[in-house]
Amino acid sequence: MNTTTLVKNNQAGELRDTTGLNFFEEDQNFNSLLKHYLSEEDFERAKPLLAELGKIAGDELDQLSRVSEKNPPELVHYNAKGERIDRIDYHPSYKEMERLGYSKFGMVAMSHQKNVLGFPGDFPYVLKYAFWYLFAQSEFSLLCPMSMTDSAARVIGKYASEEMKEKYIPKLTSMDMDELWTGAQFMTEIQGGSDVAANTMTAKKVGDHWELTGDKWFCSNASADVALALARPENAPAGTKGLGLFLIPKKLEDGTLNHYRINRLKDKFGTRNMASGEITFEGTIAYEVGDIKNGFKQMMAMVSSARLSNSVRSAGIIRRSYLEALEYARGREAFGKKLAELPLMTETLFELLLDSETATASVLHTAQIYSEADKGSAKDQALLRILTPMLKGYICKRARYSTAESMEARGGNGYIEDWVNAKLVREAHLGSIWEGTTNILALDILRAFTKDKVGDAFFDDIAHRLKATEDPLSKRTAKLLSAVHKKIQKQAERVISLEGQARELPAKQLMNRLYHLYAVSLLFEQANVEINEQNSYRKLYLTAQYIHRYFLSNGLDDVLIADQSLLDVFEKLVNWEPVQADAVGKFLDEVELLSL
Ligand SMILES: Cc1cc2nc3c(=O)[nH]c(=O)nc-3n(C[C@H](O)[C@H](O)[C@H](O)COP(=O)(O)OP(=O)(O)OC[C@H]3O[C@@H](n4cnc5c(N)ncnc54)[C@H](O)[C@@H]3O)c2cc1C
């Protein structure tokens, strides 16, 4: 047979993607951060495991994810005998991803069980999120059920009776797929997503259990074995104060199905391989979790942990977006050059690199704070109170931009479903909607300042990282950053001093600025270490660029920056080769001219 090919070799370079790359080994920023946050022993122990997941993420997991997206789950209402069963059937590719996540890599078990994956004792928090970050680069949706399973076990462990803990935690955290029970979180009702106080599902005490009646409008992992749900006990007050937290088992003690109907599965823009349903509860048997008068607060523990998990996943998506764009731009040719050699494409790639390195640093650093907060550190608890909504608010929203830029970097091909970009765009859009939209998180940050008074903890923590070393360039950068710090702290104080609507209006801008300050402080801290240990100014160069891009863009001057050092150092930045001091010096000369 005469076959012809549309692709003419070498005419336009190679059309590359990331298939076959090891997402762990390729990611030098991630490696260097892990080295910083983990003990040497833990890092060495983790390396082969992360390399294994990195390899799978760069190939098998990616393929499974794409196949499962094209084969969404199906809801089967009745069995052959006409009995209502509401079973959800998943494609084998989804089941295989579940095996990889829950069983092979123990990504839920690792937060709850000892000696997971050969780690003696407790698994370090930073390392846990490292696994989630790698996994998310190829599969985002399944991490929602996995995160809910993880956080359901956490909430039960924190608040439930001993009997409930013994019954449910081993199941929710099992690495044996035949034993595993997955979890869900049923909170949103049609009238109350952001405004949870408007929830109307009722709970009636009957003997040793409760019966729930009402509807939930968004129930991801609708086939879960165990769901935690909010409902209002009879005679409880209105608002969030009147909501109790209940555990709903899928099956009753006698093995029959609990009393609820999955009406339909959502036809979603993305995360199509994961089942999100609408459910009607009709005298559904449920059990109270913890203090019935404290249901909302307890549920927020689940939501907070899901928010951090979402930020980690979005950081993973941002990293994947950068890597896809870089690979393509290094292969594809236009105007007689590789795309990566063209100034404006360099700028696009650099922006993605900067977003990726800061997002990854921010989530891993916060994972460390989460760990300390859980050990009882009041300072870290205060920090976590603001960092969790801040990361979710900024990084998840930014992932929309990064995925879209990466799509455009692939030109027309980026828009075609053969490539991963469209899937990444779809997934990124959900990250900023569920578990609190961007606006809701910005408002939460205001509450963190006004009600929980965490402002001092936040700004002190940043100031602590902005200290210069003896290096003259470090000193110049610290001076700029200290001015930025002062200015943003003042802005925050001003916003908090306002009342009502006037306070809400600038909340999103404030959230973004707080994030940038946090991110740049981490960059600067790493830069100082890098200068001392490796005599390289790579991270200091990134710090100076970050200052220019996010703190000095107040007027026309911004675009007139004459420095072209980016074109000289770009390859070094990408390849993690040492960057010389003079590149930073020249850039800082320009930045200081524009200074605050
Ligand atoms: C695919 C998918 C899966 C989901 N899975 C689950 C799940 O498993 N469990 C669950 O409980 N929920 C789930 N959700 C629900 C999700 O958490 C909510 O959709 C989300 O919290 C927003 O609520 P809402 O849809 O009611 O929007 P609304 O609350 O109606 O918000 C609409 C818009 O108004 C804005 N807004 C609302 N209040 C304010 C305010 N005070 N100031 C300024 N702007 C405001 C919001 O930011 C948003 O942009 C899921 C959603 C999706 C899309």
Which terms would index this structure?
single chain; 596 residues; alpha+beta; Butyryl-CoA Dehydrogenase, subunit A, domain 2; five-stranded mixed barrel; two-stranded antiparallel sheet; 55% helix; globular; binds flavin-adenine dinucleotide
Structure at a glance:
The chain is built from 20 helices and 11 strands.
Write up what this structure looks like.
- With 596 residues, the chain is α+β, with helices and mostly antiparallel strands.
- Among the domains are: 183-296, Butyryl-CoA Dehydrogenase, subunit A, domain 2; 480-593, no CATH class.
- It is built from 20 helices and 11 strands.
- β1 (74-78) and β2 (84-89) form a beta hairpin.
- The termini are far apart.
- The site of flavin-adenine dinucleotide has 22 residues, from β3, β5 and α13.
Average of the residue pLDDT scores: 95
Q: What low-confidence regions span 5 or more consecutive residues with pLDDT below 50?
A: none
Instruction: Describe the largest sheet.
Output: 5 strands, mixed, barrel
Give the ligands present: flavin-adenine dinucleotide
